[in-house]
Amino acid sequence: MQWVRLYITVEGQAEKEFADRALRPHLADYSVEVRPRVVLTSRKLGKRGGILDFAKIRGDIDRLMKEDRHGEARFTTMVDLYALPPEFPGWAEARTKTRPVERVAVLERALQTEFAEQRFIPFIQLHEFEALLYCDLGELQRRIANSEFGIRNLRSEVAHMEPEEINEGPMTAPSKRIIRHVPIYERSKVRVGAPAAAAIGLSTLRSKCPHFGAWLAKLENLAGRAA
Q: Which of 19, 53, 120, 148 could serve as a FRET partner for 218 with CA atoms 20 to 30 Å apart?
């Protein structure tokens, strides 16, 4: 089976750390070499991280595709639906959809059309990276001292919600809820969040986050399609 190089353009350092810790070793078993890259937001300053506008992510991925034109190269994204810039392709149509999963489907189709490249696999996280942590908040609690009370209240707050259904309001997005109950998380997202998500395990993440799971299944099949 031919190996595939998979470039993952991610929104920030926490996503990159998660890709390195969880996706890289897992996908190696499927002959996929994971190469995560934080989106370049300022070429002049060499600054990476955050989706400030769509032009930044488009330019970054375009340059990457030109750098590796080989047939065994594949490209994907791991960016948040939460706070996605309004100029993102498909945003006008997506706003008409009531269910977030339908909104994401519209945006991903528009993103695929925008690049018009068979080697590209779009993925937008519902609603942000922190949704993965809700699959087992115990892993977050184990990494943050004296967080038992806050995590207990957080569990109670989202008890009726699936991880990918936790919404995108400025006070109710997955990360905002965590920060409200466990404020130190705001300063330790990379150090704590990424290892916690990786420790939960991809089996649990894909079962409790179906949209994430569908993306992971596509990545697992890349080398088979390239053979």
A: 53
